[in-house]
Amino acid sequence: MQHGTGNNESLMQQIKKIKQEKNALILAHYYQPDEIQEMADFIGDSLGLSQQAADTNADVIVFCGVHFMAESAAILCPDKLVLLPEPTAGCPMADMAGGEALRKMKDQYPKAAVVCYINSSAEVKAESDICCTSANAVKVVQSLTDYEQVIFVPDRNLGHYVSRFTEKEIILWEGFCPTHDQLKPEEIAAAKSQYPDAPILVHPEAPPSVVDMTEHVFSTSGMLKYVKETNHANYIIVTEKGIKYQLKKDNPDKHFWFPSERLVCRDMKLTTLDKVFNALETLSPQITVSSDIRMKAIQSLNRMLAIGRESKN
Ligand code: 13P
Ligand code: SF4
To answer: CATH top-level class for 94-178+295-312?
Structure first.
């Protein structure tokens, strides 16, 4: 097999060329390595990336992210080839919920609506009424006007955050993101004592004790928007460190402080330029979803996307 070789710049040129030949679109999440974000056609949060996947005219989507993201693109775009350059890049939180266990919980709470975080498998999406991301979770739960009970799967921290904005009973799944859940309030407090004027921006995957320390709770795209629209010299950023690439690109004169060295998602860092080139050259590894699961899972994704589109108008 012919590998893309050489330094980053020449690899990026090779990727650009082969991408045009194959009519491919390269999507990357904000947690991806810097050079992957630099090379991608579109960088975004989970919501923005799903919207791009749903709307593209490309024949091939190269998803620089983790498995559930490529799987969501495969659900939304059955006629396109969806590639995940590193097939073992998963999301430990998504792996904490399975279809069988969710069906059991639904039997326990037959009157509850099921809201799944997009960080979940196709099978879990197929068992859910509607999907959400961290950018729209509150709005999605509030849209369920016919329900008093909601099963929220799999992120207990995002579910807990949503419960602050609704009278509904939120039944939490015991899943969590290992990267965000390990954060301790003392670590944030230490950063704050070093930069007392810096606002603290927290992702809702963090534990409630950390969320309690700020009123600025945002998805990754929400953080980027807040920083662009405000004028501080320093910001304390409580999410995965990959976001620093876009923060710095948008705001070269501002400073960003991460309160923990451990704010790194190992799976997000598995993508390399070599793997992207090889994926385009060999049109593999491909991510597919069986049609029976896809037909059900697409409904929960489309319901979420419809809410996103309504809010734009
Ligand atoms: P968002 O970019 O949608 O905030 O998601 C964060 C995340 O953990 C993705 O895996
Ligand atoms: Fe999953 Fe957390 Fe990594 Fe996002 S940061 S992919 S939620 S493990």
So the answer is: alpha beta
